[in-house]
Amino acid sequence: MTDAEKGDEPLTNRRRVAVQYESALGSAEMVLEKGAEIAKTIENAQTTATRLGAERAGVIYFGGQDDMIPTLPAEVEPNPMCGYRLSAQQVRQLGDTLDLHGVKVEAGGWVPLGQPMRGLIPLLLDERSEHAIATVPPVAECPAG
User: Fold this and answer.
1) Could you give the CA distance from residue 44 to residue 42 in angstroms, rounded to a whole number?
2) Over the stretch 72-129, which tens digit does the pLDDT of each residue have?
3) C-alpha closest to that of 79 among 55, 43, 107
């Protein structure tokens, strides 16, 4: 905030609108210029997430943010679970929300980590996540089939 803005709220608001407009415009231009590259990067990330989940590889994070990898033991699971099993009631309560987030719930309420939204699943379902919408015990062993 500049000295001029400190006493002039409309001036501050006009600057904020201008900055947001330029940000939106820049984002749109980037998508137009690099759309194919962006789509390929997303596809590769989804493929990698699905593979890591199916192989029970990589690390699961319950904390942190975009610019900070969590390091506390409670925020990291170095031995990934196979998935989560929802009760019938949880499927009814959470099914639409999980679907909106791209999380697939299979027959019997099974939510495997071997899917593109692998990183989001524990954040939504595990008791170790501060953002969990339900607390579902992780399943260590994958079901047969």
Assistant:
1) 5
2) 888 889 999 999 999 999 999 999 999 999 999 999 999 999 999 999 999 999 989 9
3) 55
The closest alpha carbon to 112, from 54, 60, 61, belongs to: 54
- DSSP at 68: B
Locate the domains of the chain by residue range.
Answer: 3-54, 56-139
In this structure, are residues 145 and 86 in contact, taking their beta carbons and an 8 Å threshold? no
User: Letter for the amino acid at 36?
Assistant: A
Cβ atoms of 50 and 76 closer than 8 Å: no
Contact 57, 48 (CB under 8 A): no
Task: Please give the DSSP secondary-structure letter assigned to residue 113.
Answer: S
